[in-house]
Amino acid sequence: MMIQAVAHRGYPKKYPENTMSSFLKAVELGFTHLELDVHLSKDGIPVVIHDHTLDRMTNGTGRVVDYTASELQSLKMKQDEHIPTLEEVLRALKGKIQLNIELKQMGNYYPQLEERVFDLIEQFDMLNQVFITSFDFDALEKIRQRSGDVRIGLITFGCSKAILDWSIEMGATFLSIHHAFVTEHYINKCKELGIQLMAWTINEASIMKKFQEYPSVWVCTDELESFIDVLELSSSL
After folding, report:
1. How does pLDDT run across 78-100, given as a tens digit for each residue?
2. Which of 19, 85, 94, 141 fits a 20 to 30 Å CA distance from 48?
3. Residue 131 forms beta bridges with which residues?
4. CA-based angle 74:76:78, to the nearest 5?
5. Are 196 and 175 in contact (CB under 8 A)?
């Protein structure tokens, strides 16, 4: 059974987030989409990790940007995992699952992040398997300048007419909103505009059930098996 939802950082409730074991479990469970986070190493290599610092997920300390990719991959994580490069992830998941690549850009913190990520997507011929998201407007505009075909979308807590107007102007086909601020008005507006709406990050079964009333909205979750349980219960009623 294919699960129409977004596995947030893979399956972080059972495996270290943003690692290959976490990603492959999401594929095994049948999720259609996977969200992952990308930073840039000191030597300009896109690496997959959520935080700008290493302390929470590895035995290292300090900023991601202060380490080379080789140094980052030598750090220890739980369950014998390591920080993967984006190249490693794309190679392993090509043809297996749709990828939501979130650029962890802040202003010009990583000057070449957008270019390096897009180069890899082109290298692996995965334009149709990837959509690129960010909280950073400028990062998405840089991606759009590289290609009119790549799917892009803003991540935001709430929504507004200005955000929808920007999305239309940029040809964005995706919008990610914190689930608490997803309203029926914006669900309908996004459907009207042809923008795919995602609600993040939903880990409570009661909220998952609520969003079953809005099948056009993708649910982003850490609780993959709980989401499957909710789907199965809903389909049995």
Report:
1. 999 999 999 999 999 999 999 99
2. 141
3. 100, 151
4. 150
5. yes
Region 174-187: mean pLDDT is 97
Domain that holds residue 128: 3-236
Residue bearing tokens 């030598």: 74
**What pLDDT does residue 80 have?**
96
Mean confidence (pLDDT) of the chain:
97
Distance of CA 69 to the CA centre of its chain: 21
Catalytically active residues, by annotation: 8, 50
**Contact (Cβ atoms closer than 8 angstroms) between residue 46 and residue 40:** yes
Query: 116-139 pLDDT, tens per residue?
Result: 999 999 999 999 999 999 999 999
Q: Rounded to whole angstroms, what are the CA distances from 136 to 104, 105, 119, 162, 226?
A: 8, 6, 19, 15, 31
**Inter-CA distances, 36 with 10, 178, 180, 206, Å:** 7, 17, 22, 25
Residues 104, 79 contacting (CB under 8 angstroms): no
| CATH number of the domain that residue 53 is part of | 3.20.20.190
pTM for this model (two decimals): 0.97
Distance in Å from the first CA to the final CA of the chain: 18
- pLDDT category at 10 given cuts 50, 70, 90 is very high
User: What span, in angstroms and rounded, lies between the C-alpha atoms of 121 and 46?
Assistant: 11
How many domains does the structure of the chain reveal? 1
**pLDDT for res 237:** 65
Structure tokens at 20: 């290959």
